[in-house]
Design a protein that fits this description.
Blueprint (H helix, E strand, L loop, with lengths): L9 E5 L1 E6 L4 E6 L12 E5 L5 E7 L5 E7 L5 E8 L3 E7 L8 E10 L2 E11 L1 E2 L4 E6 L14 E7 L6 E4 L12 E2 L5 E7 L5 E7 L8 E7 L1 H4 L16 E8 L3 H4 L17 H12 L2 H8 L3 E4 L2 H4 L3 E4 L4 E3 L2 H6 L7 E4 L5 H19 L8 E4 L6 E3 L5 E3 L3 H21 L4 E3 L8 E2 L13 H23 L1
Parallel strand pairs: 7-14, 18-19, 18-20, 20-24, 24-27, 25-28
Antiparallel strand pairs: 1-6, 2-3, 4-5, 5-6, 7-8, 8-12, 9-10, 9-13, 11-12, 13-14, 13-17, 15-16, 16-17, 21-22, 21-23, 25-26
Helix pairs in contact: 7-8
């Protein structure tokens, strides 16, 4: 096989029969269709001698044609043996095959290419090769210098040697990089952290260096991760969000019904040990109520709102008349079993749910507008994705697509009603944008969780809206 076809980690090769017509001096390519009697015999995989470290897998396409996956088989040939870093240097040791000659450590910057990436920028460091282990020491005043870095970029480590492809550096399970910190990069406006990437290989994650803003806009958030995670400092989201916004408080996974209820004091959350601190705060906020009081006291510039908690789930009424949000936390921790539940409003009849929801929405809107002007309310229209990138970067469709579309339909109804009542509210609408889910979402794969670009684009939209309103107020 030609090495020119081995472009990405996984390449699709289609097969044709080429027929030449001698009489007309023309040629025609025909796909190779598979006879049904041998279809089950087609899938197989072989390691190739040329190019080095590659393999070929045959398969039958959905249109019943023969194709191949031409793959790089580079994993675990070179491994990380040890890692030490401090403020001045990075020390790496590797396990490299003995027959490798003239080895160098190469760091390459990823440049996006659709949902894949390629490399143009690199930095090279010497490797001192030993009998058992080889090593490289990188001084921090030479690390990632003289190269153009991208915001929230990723650089990958490779070992380069004579007559071999550049090989990624595999990280065994006994090496823990999870506690590594971001370090400043010499004379550059960004910070870098050495990490284990999704393929268990050695990489670098970069973020912009912190910039102080003495007067960020104050944002209150009511809704879900659709809105809140745009204000998260992990590289996947927006590491520099604090330059622009201060999140004053978050009312998470709380139903419109629950917000208008009296507090409920009959639950001791300390007895439920199977909750994270964040989950405990979420449930406690729902029990304590006080959303409107917190919003008024926060003196927030904007309220970012989404109706996710009422789209997927419903409220429940207790015997004393209090209303709580039926969040996933309530279900998973067993709190639900200890509540004096009188009634549950679920989504078995969305028309009935909608009619009751509008009554509470009217009261919610009336009270909200006494605290926050309509122009300072930002409705995130939200919406679930029916597709996602799997762990190989291939687009897949959720098997529950019809149920997801039903939920999106209902979410649109809630949004439309709110905007009919508050027509001058600001709107963020990503329902027509192409973002989908991602297997590597930091907090778990779900049709509620999107690829990284969603949150970065969302953040840009927030800046655009707030800057536009700022210009209006100064004119």
């Amino acid at each position: 096989m030609s090495a020119k076809l081995l472009v990405d980690s996984n390449n699709v090769i289609d097969v044709f029969i080429r027929l030449n017509s001698l009489s007309t001096n023309t040629q025609h390519d025909f796909y190779l269709n598979i006879d049904s009697t041998i279809k089950n015999m087609i899938p197989r995989e072989v390691d190739l001698e040329t190019p080095k470290y590659s393999k070929l897998s045959s398969f039958v396409t959905g249109s019943n044609r023969l194709s191949f996956y031409f793959k790089k088989n580079y994993q675990e040939i070179v491994s990380l043996a040890s890692f030490i870093e401090d403020e001045n240097k990075i020390e790496l040791q590797f396990t490299i095959p003995k027959n490798f000659a003239n080895c160098e450590l190469v760091i390459k910057r990823r440049d996006s290419k659709a949902k894949l990436f390629e490399y143009y920028i690199e930095q090279v460091f010497p490797i001192k090769k030993g009998l058992i282990k080889s090593g490289s020491i990188i001084s921090r005043d030479k690390f990632l210098i003289d190269n153009v870095n991208k915001d929230n970029g990723v650089w990958d480590f490779f070992v380069r040697s004579t007559n071999n492809p550049d090989l990624p550096i595999f990280i065994p399970t006994n090496i823990d990089l999870s506690k590594n910190k971001y370090h400043s990069v010499f004379k550059n406006p960004f910070q870098a952290r050495i990490i284990r990437n999704g393929a268990n290989n050695l990489s670098i994650s970069t973020i912009p260096a912190s910039e102080q803003n003495s007067n960020p806009l104050k944002i209150a958030i009511m809704g879900s991760c659709f809105s809140r995670n745009a204000f998260n400092s992990k590289p996947y989201f927006n590491p520099d969000y604090k330059r622009f916004f201060e999140v004053t408080f978050t009312q998470s996974h709380t139903s419109i019904f629950s917000v208008l209820s009296e507090p409920y004091k009959g639950v001791d959350l300390e007895k439920y040990g199977n909750m994270t601190n964040n989950e405990r705060r979420t449930v406690q906020d729902d029990l304590n109520k006080g959303f409107f009081e917190k919003l008024e006291k926060s003196n927030s510039d904007y309220l970012l709102l989404d109706f996710y908690p009422d789209v997927l789930r419903g409220p429940l009424w207790l015997e004393g008349g209090e209303i709580l949000s039926l969040s996933y936390i309530m279900e998973q921790t067993g709190i639900l079993n200890d509540l004096p539940i009188k009634r549950l409003l679920d989504h078995s009849n969305n028309d009935a749910f909608f009619q009751e929801w509008t009554t509470y929405a009217d009261k919610f809107i009336e009270k909200l507008l006494t605290i926050m002007p309509a122009e300072r309310i930002i409705l995130n229209k939200g919406g679930f994705t029916t597709k996602y990138y799997d762990k190989n970067g291939t687009v897949q469709e959720y098997k529950i697509k019809m149920r997801i579309e039903r939920n999106n339909y209902f979410w649109d109804r809630l949004n439309n009603y709110f905007l009919a009542k508050v027509p001058t509210a600001q709107v963020i609408d990503f329902t027509k944008k192409p973002y989908i889910g991602d297997y590597y979402y930091p907090f778990g794969h779900s049709f509620s969780h999107f690829e990284s670009g969603y949150y970065k684009d969302f953040f840009r939209e927030m800046i655009y809206i707030t800057e536009r309103e700022k210009r209006k107020s100064t004119n």
